[in-house]
Amino acid sequence: MLYRRQQIRKPRTNAGAGKRGNRVRPPYVSATRVRTSDLGESGYRGPATLAGIRRHTIPGPEASGRDVLVAILLWFIRPRTGKLRPEIGNKGTVLQPMNSSETAKKIASYTNWIQDIEIDGVNTLNRNDPKQYNHVNRTRIRRELFIEPLLRSGFLRGKRVLDLGCSYGYWAMAAASEGEAAEVVGVDAHAPSIEQGRWILERKQIGNCELRLADSYTTLETLAAGSFDVIFCLGFFYHIRDPFRLLTLMQRAAKEAVIVDTMVHKSDDANISLRPVRPKNLLGESVLGLEMFSSPKAIYWMGLEAGFKEVTRLETDLEADTRGLWDYRGGNRASFAMSNGPAIASIFDNAQPFEYPTPAEDIELHGIYPELNGGRNGAGNPS
User: Fold this and answer.
1) Can you tell me whether residue 113 is helix, strand or coil?
2) Tens digits of per-residue pLDDT, 248-273?
3) Residue 208 above 80 pLDDT?
4) Which of 22, 82, 261, 274 has a CB 3.0–4.6 Å from the CB of 335, allowing a cystine?
């Protein structure tokens, strides 16, 4: 307990008066304890608390030097009329107040807003702008597809969640603030996005979410088995070069489930399509390389091969308003729920079991690898 203790001295008698050091001194005022609970988390005194303390801390002529110093300190930290009281920020930092124009200027300094977030009363997107509304509507549908069922069911409550390729952490923040997860960690290798997300966390006062500048593969490889209960891989899967390796690492690190939302290759076969990356990404940065679009059947097979007990596709229930949903509308994007433990498909109203056969069933149905049955000519090897 932090407190200021005033020593209560007994008045001396007049015996020996006149001798040096034996003068009669009046007693000090009664001792006053100032507890941290009276001060709030930051030790900042609100007006009511300070008014009650001030009565005991105004130094009189009999006060010691320590009392004077305490009184001066209280004077400097007193509430000022017309100024906002500082609030406690993430991890105990003091959150400095910002007016709407300052917040709007800060929001405008970031160029990759694709979700509508209210920060200090200012929205990151303008819903009256048709182009920006596409992002607003897209976020709404995606939330209904793979996030809202997790939130409504309480599936994330009290759990550890890892968000891979989190960008500025929109889905990670939803899991932390709305899903009541115990701890959420978002990782992304793009430094400006992590900086942007950390600013949002500070302004939104979300304390159970952390964003790290890190590579997803490296992060997964260093984790012990079952380190997280749930892993998000949303809008990231098709950017990586080795999708099967990623699924294998996620299966090992996730105790219960993995949620994947990705661009897919439209095909009924199990294949992967290589696509050249567009010259500039959403951040306006020049990029070179390839993206790998796996077909739904390929994702299903790779998920089973990686060790998941259940792989389910989440069907998008498109409404009349499909602005911003060109990829879902055209079947170029899909979401999947993969379970390591209890079946997760029951949480989603739109979960559809795959009609594709498993790899073993496909071998039997189509006579693939005839060498397993003695080869076409019975020689044990394919002709």
Assistant:
1) coil
2) 999 999 999 999 999 999 998 999 99
3) yes
4) 261
- Hey, what are 158's tokens? 């009290």
To the nearest whole number, what is the mean pLDDT of the chain?
A: 76
Residue 65, CA distances (Å) to 20, 161, 259, 277 in order = 21, 53, 63, 71
Q: Give the CATH number of domain 106-366.
A: 3.40.50.150
DSSP 261-297: EEE----SSS-EEEEEPPSB-TTS-B--SEEEEE-HH
CA distances for 97 relative to 33, 85, 111, 152, 209, angstroms: 30, 8, 23, 33, 21
Residue 44 has pLDDT above 50, yes or no: no
Portions of the chain given CATH number 3.40.50.150: 106-366
Give 33-43 pLDDT, tens digit per residue: 333 333 333 33
- Return the residue matching tokens 């793009």: 190
Strands 254-263 and 228-234: parallel
* Closest by CA position to 28, among listed 47, 9, 51, 49: 9
